[in-house]
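Summary for the steering committee. The consortium agreed at its last meeting that each partner would contribute one worked example illustrating the joint modelling workflow. Our contribution is presented below. We chose a case with several input lines so that the handling of multiple components could be demonstrated. No manual editing was applied between input and output; the record is shown as generated.
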Amino acid sequence: MNSSWIQYGIYFLGIVLLQGLVINHIGIGPYAYPMIYTMLLIVLPFEINIIFLLGIALLLGVSVDMLSDTFGLHTSSSIFIAYVRPALLNALKPRDGYDDNQMPTVHDMGFAWYAAYAGIFIVLHHTWFFVLEIFRFDMVGLILLKIIVSSLLSFVILMGLQFLLYKSSR
Amino acid sequence: MRNLLSFLKRFRNFLIFIVLQIFILSLFFNSKNYHKASFVNSTNAISGWIIQKRYNITKHFNLSEVNEQLAQENAELKSKLPFSFYTLENNVFSVNDTLFEQQYQYISATVLNYTNHMHNNYATIDKGTLAGIEKDMGVIVNNGIVGFVIDVSDHYAIIRTVLSERINLIVEVNGIMGQLDWRGTDKEFCHIKGLTASADIKKGDKVFTKGSSGHFPKGILVGVVADIEVENGSATLTVPVKLSTNFSALSHVYVVVNIFKQEQKELEGAHYE
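What follows is the complete predicted structure of the assembly.
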């Protein structure tokens, strides 16, 4: 347990810096803004205490906000998604529940389950983010386009990171 | 009382969530107001340090482009120096000029960090209050405008670029005033709203700053009229303007210090409010 939290801390630093210093500056057109730091909330254990989860989300959001001049937008989105996460996991629960030694990764849970989980997670997060960022009714089309393009991109990058960073625990 | 306690216990998570969201979102929406910025930004010491380190690595990437820009600017300035003029009258440059008084000064700064693909775009520069930069100053580059300073710390400042909503910059085309507005997607174009349809504007006309609010001197180039869109049944024109500032390669900028700003503000404040 302990060593997995150390590993998590390293991933946290690495991914926040990757997001703030590299991804923010790629600039692939006005619609694509991948937010890969969502991975850090996706891969937390199933049975994590929600207060602790909100705390991690707050820390994560503030760190990303400080590097990208978004004045709290990332914090708001990650707190939102952290609050929704237990309900989402509950909705996606297999018939016999989650095993104690399983983690929500692609290796432990299988591709189909992980794709559904990460997909919904990312779309919810990105929707909250872009709706708040633009916050205008006359720009619904732009908001939708941003959500779709950015979610797809985030999803692909996160899938790659899964295979890169996590190995099967069995 | 017991009911209240059990209610609080049941909705504890939700209450924590709501309180956090209200706190964060009030910071965020305050930052949309033109003059305010929250504490969650890159002027603080830690992220300033990290961004500086990143800049030290990436600053060499577009060096040739930056060099060319600076050389061009040098050439332009050189052509304005006394030795470039043919002297018509020998003592013309020794006259102590009392007709003009300096109103604007410029502080040069380097852009450490900027975005151009968000809905509101910001840039961080490497000078702050210690270099004399204050909130609300205008920022320009050699061939265009960049935006306004919205927040400063000792060593860093954040600029809200014209690629932001509600930037409310007054510009001038052929002597006609209009308001510059960004539509959120294209980093090369802004639009001038609210011009009357009879306005005498052609494709290719140059757009300059008006200078009325004191952020920028009058007559700084903003861009070139790219097209004329007449809306059906409407008495107004919308004019897309191709910005002269290259927002995909911001490097050296000048912060405009208006020496008369305080005077203008005090005078206006005494009568407008």
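Chain A has a mean pLDDT of 90. Residues 47 and 157 of chain A are 26 Å apart (CA to CA).
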